[in-house]
Amino acid sequence: MSRLSVLVVEDEDAIREMLAMVLEQSGFEASQCADAEVANLILQERMPDLIVLDWMLPGISGIEWARRLKKDQFYREIPIILLTARGEEEDKVRGLEIGADDYMTKPFSPKELVARIRAVLRRTGKIQDLAQITLGDMILDSEQHRLTIGDKQLDVSPTEFRLMQFFMTHPDKVYSRTQLLDQVWGRSVYIEERTVDVHIRRLRKILAEYGREELVQTVRGFGYRFSLIS
C-alpha cells in the first residue's frame, strides 16, 4: 500500500535521523531537513501528510514557520506536531493557538510520537481509509489483502493491490508515471517508468474480466486517472 509521508524539520542531526528511522520502521515515508528554508523547497516538490517540526530552528523559527504555513491556503491543511524543549503551559498554548495539531516536549518517547502522529492523522481523516476503502461496489481491505467487486474477489499481485489502494484513495485525479512510482513503489526503489505501464495493463486486464477496464484511464501527455466516470 502507499505509505503516508512525514516531513521532519529538526536541526539536531541525531534527533532528526533517529526520528526518520523510527518513522520508516513504523511504516511511514520520512523526509528530513534541518531548517525552514529547505523545508519550503521540499514542500514545493511534494506535500507531506504531516510535519514534525522543532520549535527552535536556525533562521526562521519553527513556530514562525508554522504560523506562515497555517496562513497559506495551499499548506494550511497539513497537520503539524511541534517538538520543543519548552515545557511551560503558555508556550504550549501559543503553539496550539497558531494552529499546531499537537505538541511534545523533549525528551520524548519515539513510540509516543508515532502514536500521536497516528492519532492526528486519524483526526484529519488520512488514516481511516487505510484499513478498508469502499468506492462504488468495490471494497479494498488492506488488513486481509482482499479486493472485491460486488461479491467477487479479484486475483491481483501485491503491486497491483497497492496501485488499486492508491487509485481508490485518490480518484478522479491525474498522476504521472513518476508520481505513481513515488507513491506506490517509493522513492528509495529504482524502477523504470515503463514498469508503471506494465502493471497498469495487467490491472486493466483483471478489471476487464469484471467489465471495469474503463476505471483506469490514460490521459494523453500526462499519465493515468482512476475514475468511476468514464
TrEMBL record:
GO terms for molecular function: phosphorelay response regulator activity; transcription cis-regulatory region binding. Its main location: cytoplasm. One of its GO terms (cellular component) is protein-DNA complex. It comes from the Bacteria. Residues 5-121 form the Response regulatory domain. The modification 4-aspartylphosphate is found at residue 54. GO terms for biological process: phosphate ion transport; regulation of DNA-templated transcription. The keyword Cytoplasm applies. It is found in: Cytoplasm. PANTHER family: PHOSPHATE REGULON TRANSCRIPTIONAL REGULATORY PROTEIN PHOB (PTHR48111:SF40), REGULATOR OF RPOS (PTHR48111). This is Phosphate regulon transcriptional regulatory protein PhoB. It comes from Methylotuvimicrobium alcaliphilum (strain DSM 19304 / NCIMB 14124 / VKM B-2133 / 20Z).
